[in-house]
Design goal:
The protein is α+β, with helices and mostly antiparallel strands and 91 residues long. The protein is built from three helices and five strands; from the N terminus they run ααβββββα. It is elongated, with a radius of gyration of 19 Å.
Length: 91
Amino acid sequence: MNKSELIEALSLEKDLTYKRAEEIVNLMFDSMTQELVKGGRIEIRGFGSFVVKDYKSYTGRNPKTGEAIQVKTKKLPFFKVGKELRERVDN
């Protein structure tokens, strides 16, 4: 399912216009993004949690040339699946 399919499903399920459903989905994603940018954690019970992980710099290799390059430190979002979702998918 992609974002537009999620919007369509919300629109049909809750009898909303597509535009209103799109506003709701965008608000939810924007709020989640802002929390992660601030370094916060998002936990949705039964679904999972989102956190930002810090990765230190390291020496990598350019796959084309094999040349050593320095990869800068970075922060990446990480999702950890919740127990309930994991069990539902597994069954």
